[in-house]
Amino acid sequence: MAKRKAENTSIGDVVKAFIETNKLEKGLDKLDVSDAWHKVLGNAVSKYTTNIMLDQSTLFVQLSSSVLREELSYGKEKIIKILNEELGKELITKLVLR
Phi/psi at 69 (nearest 5 deg)? Predict the structure, then answer.
């Protein structure tokens, strides 16, 4: 059983320590990326998004519309930049649209 610390700590610090100890950061990053995709690109694109997967630093996005896939392919670098800004860290280096 873990020992109690003498000083007071915030809930945020305790949660961060728990995440680091149990190596949960990668899984949470995957969820954050999915949320960021829907938030940044809006409902119009989200409607045609069927799957989002983060593998290493590559974001794979499956779309049900070939026209939308072609349109988004022209702005991949900008999408990556906006998503990384939304996430607050450089998680994505490559975007693959399927």
Answer: -60, -45
Q: Which CATH architecture describes the domain 24-97? A: 2-Layer Sandwich (3.30)
Enter the pTM of the model.
0.79
Domain ranges across the chain: 24-97
Contact between 72 and 45 (Cβ < 8 Å): yes
Contact (Cβ atoms closer than 8 angstroms) between residue 76 and residue 95: yes
List CB contacts of 60: < 8 A, sequence separation 6 or more. Answer: 51, 52, 53, 54, 96, 98
User: What are 25-40's pLDDT values in tens digits?
Assistant: 788 888 899 999 999 9
